[in-house]
Write a structure and sequence with these properties.
The protein contains five helices and two strands. It has 173 residues and is mainly α. 76% of the residues lie in helices and 6% in strands.
Length: 173
């Protein structure tokens, strides 16, 4: 009987040890909502404001050219000059304004893409650092595209990551 009690105790203890080992050996993982992190990242906000300022300046220059065009059109109407040379000059100016506007818009799109690449490069580094510092084996990025179909809410580290990346960006830790 004593051996049976001892054997039951050893088996129960072994079960507890195995259960504890299985629990501890589970990989630590979490996920972050990438769109929220991206939108809340201070670098993104700064570059977005910079892009808006550049866009206003460049498009303002195009608007100035449009005003010149409108002035030419009023002068043509007021003077009654509709000769082929004046019309040709007006058409040439209209073409140049349209071309410059298109160039400005394309340059803004290129700059926007460069800024986004810069933001993602920095975010990816900060996310790697966050995962390493918090001893995660897996840190998943949820983007709403179905890459993560389900996860428990307590595994969502989005808010903590937003705080972390912004502190890192500001030079704090």
């Amino acid at each position: 009987m004593k051996i049976l009690n001892y054997l039951s105790f050893v088996l129960a203890l072994a079960g507890v040890v195995v259960a504890a080992w299985l629990y501890v050996s589970q990989p630590k993982s979490a996920y972050v909502e990438l769109d929220k992190v991206f939108d809340a990242f201070e670098l993104k906000k700064e570059l977005e404001a910079d892009l808006e300022k550049i866009g206003k300046i460049k498009l303002g220059q195009v608007d100035s050219l449009k005003l010149v065009m409108e002035s030419m059109q009023r002068d043509m109407s007021a003077s009654g000059k509709k000769d082929s040379e004046t019309i040709k000059k007006y058409q040439q100016e209209a073409y140049e304004v349209a071309y410059k506007k298109q160039q400005v818009e394309e340059n803004i799109e290129i700059l926007k893409q460069e800024y986004n690449d810069r933001i993602w490069k920095q975010l990816n580094q900060y996310l790697r650092d966050y995962g390493h510092e918090n001893k995660y084996e897996f840190l998943f990025g949820a983007s709403g595209s179905g890459s993560i179909m389900y996860a428990k809410k307590e595994n969502n580290m989005t808010d903590e990551v937003i705080i972390y990346v912004n502190k890192r960006y500001q030079g704090k830790k």
